Structure formats: structure tokens, C-alpha cells
């Protein structure tokens, strides 16, 4: 039986852990060749080995997407070595929670550099290839999936700059969607609630001690739940665009 993404190529940023790793595995299982983008090469090598062992194809691209040239190089190498680019999952992100008053501004810089600028660099480098894929690719449609968050819909005390970055991702995605959807490049926004990944491990411990209370008693989503949603988005028929998906754990209220 032919898999639904056979003959296509996907690039996933932040593929070394969490949602990105699960998404790369899921897209490879559907038959896509997958370019794995992140900084931790050892993690990417392990993931590529697993994808290969399962019969898939993966390309490891050790990349810091906050460096525009590295983002361009990752996209160019994907096209040069895997032959084309049909699907981009702009997933790399960092969440550094905490009050705005007296915040370490270095944390704000890191969030803006990755969640906003890194995402923009990858989108900018990839969009011409996505337009080409939509014109002559096997499916005659292509996908840019941007991973935002519930934090991109609802601002909360203690996550102001994370909220800013993810609201920005939503605004950018909708504007780009309007620009390219007529040419069959689908731009989608995925907004997860709490997912069990490494994301919170970068939050200062004293901040996380407070923030974690919100989620103490709920069963979180798994990275595979979000990978499943991304797979659903990119395997729709050509005339169906899933513009936005908000996915919370059932027990998450806000
Ligand atoms: N977990 C949640 O509850 C949740 C909820 C809503 C939204 N999200 C969003 O989901 C996305 C993925 O997060 P996650 O939960 O899977 O967290 P994660 O396990 O911490 O994954 C983050 C990924 O981003 C990569 N990354 C960090 N800096 C990078 C850089 N400069 N260049 C390239 N890659 C970089 C990391 O790899 P390296 O360190 O190897 O570079 C890692 O693979 C993020 O955008 C996050 O905001 C997560």
C-alpha cells in the first residue's frame, strides 16, 4: 500500500526532542523523507537511525535557526540532498516564563530570537520551494505548519514575552496564509496546551515551582498527540486546509 506522503520531503525544526522528534517520526512513517533540524546532533543522529531502521529516510542538519545563514543552509541542503521540499514544520521554540518586572532580558532575547526570528528565517528560506512543490509536486499542494501555543491565544500573568512571541506567530501565519493559499501552499497554526516534553526544563526553578501548580493534577498531552495533529493537517486532500488547531489536555481549563 502506498503511504500518503510517499515521494514528498519534509523539514522539521526542533527535531531533537519533544514535539519535533515525534512529528519527524510520524511524517517519516507516512513515507516522507525528513530533514531533521536542531542543534544537538547526537539526538538527531539517534532519531535518524530510528527512522532508518523503520524503513524511512532522514537527513541530519545540525543547525541553529536563530542564525539566518544557518536557516538558509538547512533549507538549501534539504532541497539539494533530498530533492525537493513539500512540508515544513516550524516547531523549534523556547518558553522562559516569569514576571516582566525585573526579568532577565537575556531570556526575552532568546525567546524572540528563536520563536519569532528563527521561525521567520525558516519560513522565508522555504516558501519559494513550497510554492514550487505546490505547482509541480506529487500532491500539487504543500504545507507550512507553525507551532504556536495556547499562549498564542490567551495572555497570562507570568508569560508575557512568551505570549508576545506566540501571538506574533499567529499573526504572521494568518497573513502569510492569505498571501499564498491561492497558490496551494497551506499555512497552518497548531496551538498545543500542556505537553509532556523538555520545554519547561529551561524555566528558572523558582518560577517553575509556581507555574507548575497549574498543571500538577492534569494528564498532559504527549508529543505524539501533537505529531498526530500535524500528520492530519498535512495529509488532507488538496482542497482542504486546516488553518488552525487548538489542542488542550482534556483536563486543562485555561
Ligand atoms: N510542551 C508544551 O507544553 C508546549 C505547549 C505549547 C506549545 N509548545 C511549542 O512546541 C514547540 C516544541 O516544543 P517542545 O515542547 O517539543 O519542547 P522541547 O522538547 O524543549 O523542544 C524544543 C526544540 O527546539 C530546538 N531548538 C532550541 N533552540 C534551537 C535553535 N536555536 N535552533 C534550532 N533548534 C532549536 C531544541 O533542540 P536543540 O536544543 O537540540 O537545538 C528542541 O528540539 C515549541 O515551539 C513550543 O513553544 C510546547
Offer a quick outline of the entry.
The protein is α/β, with parallel strands linked by helices and 254 residues long. It has 7 helices and 9 strands.
Strand content: 15-25%
Q: Percent range for helical residues?
A: 40-55%
Distance between the ends: 42 Å
Residue ranges: pLDDT <50 for 5 or more in a row? Answer: none
List the helices and strands in order. EHEHEHEHEHEEHEHE
How does the major sheet shape up?
A: 7 strands, parallel
Layout of strands and helices, then pairs:
Elements: E1 9-13, H1 18-29, E2 33-38, H2 41-53, E3 58-62, H3 68-82, E4 87-90, H4 105-136, E5 142-147, H5 160-180, E6 185-192, E7 195-196, H6 205-211, E8 221-222, H7 223-234, E9 244-247
Parallel strand pairs: 1-2, 1-4, 2-3, 4-5, 5-6, 6-9, 7-8
Helix pairs in contact: 1-2, 1-7, 3-4, 4-5
Bound molecules: NADP nicotinamide-adenine-dinucleotide phosphate.
Question: Which key terms come to mind for this protein?
Answer:
7-stranded parallel β-sheet; 7 helices; 9 strands; about 250 residues; binds NADP nicotinamide-adenine-dinucleotide phosphate; alpha/beta
Describe the structure.
With 254 residues, this protein is α/β, with parallel strands linked by helices. It has helices at 18-29, 41-53, 68-82, 105-136, 160-180, 205-211, 223-234, and strands at residues 9-13, 33-38, 58-62, 87-90, 142-147, 185-192, 195-196, 221-222, 244-247. A seven-stranded parallel sheet has the order 3-2-1-4-5-6-9, sandwiched between helices. A two-stranded parallel ribbon has the order 7-8. It is globular. It starts with 8 loop residues before the first strand and ends in a 7-residue tail after the last strand. The model has no long low-confidence stretch (mean pLDDT 97). Bound molecules: NADP nicotinamide-adenine-dinucleotide phosphate. The site of NADP nicotinamide-adenine-dinucleotide phosphate has 31 residues, from helix 1 and helix 4.
Amino acid at each position: 500500500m502506498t503511504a500518503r506522503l510517499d515521494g514528498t520531503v519534509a523539514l522539521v525544526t526542533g527535531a531533537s526532542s519533544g514535539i519535533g522528534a515525534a512529528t519527524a517520526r510520524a511524517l517519516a512513517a507516512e513515507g516522507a523523507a525528513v530533514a531533521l533540524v536542531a542543534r544537538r546532533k547526537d539526538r538527531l543522529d539517534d532519531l535518524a537511525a530510528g527512522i532508518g531502521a523503520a524503513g524511512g529516510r532522514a537527513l541530519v542538519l545540525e543547525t541553529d535557526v536563530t542564525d539566518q545563514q544557518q536557516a538558509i543552509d538547512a533549507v538549501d541542503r534539504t532541497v539539494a540532498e533530498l530533492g525537493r521540499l513539500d512540508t515544513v514544520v516550524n516547531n523549534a521554540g523556547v518558553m522562559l516564563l516569569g514576571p516582566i518586572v525585573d526579568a532577565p532580558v537575556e531570556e526575552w532575547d532568546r525567546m524572540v530570537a528563536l520563536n519569532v526570528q528563527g521561525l521567520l528565517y525558516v519560513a522565508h528560506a522555504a516558501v519559494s520551494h513550497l510554492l514550487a512543490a505546490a505547482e509541480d509536486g506529487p500532491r500539487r499542494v504543500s504545507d507550512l505548519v507553525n507551532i504556536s501555543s495556547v499562549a498564542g491565544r490567551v495572555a497570562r500573568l507570568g508569560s508575557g514575552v512568551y505570549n508576545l512571541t506566540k501571538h506574533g506567530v499567529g499573526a504572521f501565519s494568518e497573513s502569510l496564509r492569505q498571501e499564498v493559499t491561492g497558490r496551494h501552499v497551506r499555512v497552518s497554526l497548531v496551538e498545543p496546551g500542556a505537553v509532556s516534553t523538555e520545554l519547561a526544563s529551561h524555566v528558572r526553578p523558582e518560577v517553575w515551582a509556581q507555574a507548575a501548580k497549574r498543571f500538577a493534577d492534569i494528564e498532559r498531552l504527549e508529543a505524539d498527540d501533537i505529531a498526530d495533529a500535524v500528520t492530519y493537517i498535512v495529509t488532507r486532500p488538496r482542497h482542504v486546509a486546516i488553518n488552525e488547531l487548538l489542542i488542550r489536555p482534556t483536563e486543562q481549563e485555561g
